[in-house]
Design a protein that fits this description.
- The complex is a heterodimer.
- Chain A is mostly beta strands.
- Chain A is 0% helix and 50% strand.
- Chain A contains no helices and eleven strands.
- In chain A, the strands form two sheets. In chain A, strands 2, 4, 5, 6, 9, 10 and 11 form a seven-stranded mixed sheet that branches. A four-stranded antiparallel sheet of chain A has the order 1-3-8-7, with no helix packed on it.
- In chain A, strand 7 and strand 8 form a beta hairpin.
- Chain A is globular, with a radius of gyration of 13 Å.
- Chain A starts with a strand and ends with a strand.
- By secondary structure, chain B is mainly β.
- In chain B, the strands form three sheets. In chain B, strands 2, 5, 6, 10, 11 and 12 form a six-stranded mixed sheet that branches. In chain B, strands 3-9-8-7 form a four-stranded antiparallel sheet, with no helix packed on it.
- In chain B, a hairpin with an 8-residue loop joins strand 10 and strand 11.
- Chain B starts with a strand and ends with a strand.
- The chains are: A mainly beta, B mainly beta.
- At the A-B interface, strand 4, strand 5, strand 9 and strand 10 of A face strand 5, strand 6, strand 10 and strand 11 of B.
Chain lengths: 115, 116
């Protein structure tokens, strides 16, 4: 069964460093998302991406964040200058284009620890 | 504004008990989708069910059942004869159809502990 994959599973970085989190969505999916979950809290939407551009973003997704689909398979989230409060689990998700669908399939997550 | 409320922060039951997880949502959209996801201790998010706003039929899948009531804006989840493997955090989520690319608004989750 196809699944969303994410690398790395755990990333430790120092404050102020840039990190890139990588995701490979399910191959026939067209909508891609990033969410984050601070430890013990709810899952929060960051950004959605469709047709090679951002379609929606939350207030969390400020200028420090960017997303890219550099090739036909990868979908990346970059944090330019990490802060302590960026420590969280980051989930990538994707969905296909069926009109009544909207269910998203999530990757296993990348745990980002900023020290 | 869209919002999902899961009032139960933690629930603890003994194996074989039935348990209901509550979810109340708010939306101004007439077309929307409701979801339940399971997050086991390993951390991944597992899709359980989607419900469309125009389909109020309840659903049963094995030991799981879902009760969707538009009149009370609720989408509750019942596990019958709970098992230890059901221990997880369960999230209810909402997605609006209009003006949205399908991003999910999650509740805060209910942590279910099933003890042997």
């Amino acid at each position: 069964e196809p699944e969303v994959t994410q690398t790395p599973s755990h990333q430790v970085t120092q404050m102020g460093q840039e990190v890139i989190l990588r995701c490979v969505p399910i191959s026939n999916h067209l909508y891609f998302y990033w969410y984050r979950q601070i430890l013990g809290q709810k899952v929060e939407f960051l950004v959605s991406f469709y047709n090679n551009e951002i379609s929606e973003k939350s207030e969390i997704f400020d200028d420090q964040f960017s997303v890219e689909r550099p090739d036909g398979s990868n979908f990346t989230l970059k944090i330019r200058s990490t802060k302590l409060e960026d420590s969280a689990m980051y989930f990538c998700a994707s969905r296909d284009r069926t009109s009544g669908g909207y269910e998203q399939y999530f990757g296993p997550g990348t745990r980002l620890t900023v020290t | 504004a869209q919002k999902v409320t899961q009032a139960q922060t933690e629930i603890s039951v003994v194996e074989k008990e039935d348990v209901t997880l509550d979810c109340v949502y708010e939306t101004r959209d007439t077309t929307y989708y409701l979801f339940w996801y399971k997050q086991p201790p390993s951390g991944e998010l597992v899709f359980l069910i989607r419900r469309n706003s125009f389909d109020e039929q309840n659903e049963i899948s094995g030991r799981y059942s879902w009760n969707f009531q538009k009149s009370t804006s609720s989408f509750n989840f019942t596990i019958t004869a709970s098992q230890v493997v059901d221990s997880a955090v369960y999230f209810c989520a909402l997605s609006e159809a209009r003006g949205s690319q399908g991003n999910l608004i999650f509740g805060k989750g209910t942590k279910l502990s099933v003890k042997p």
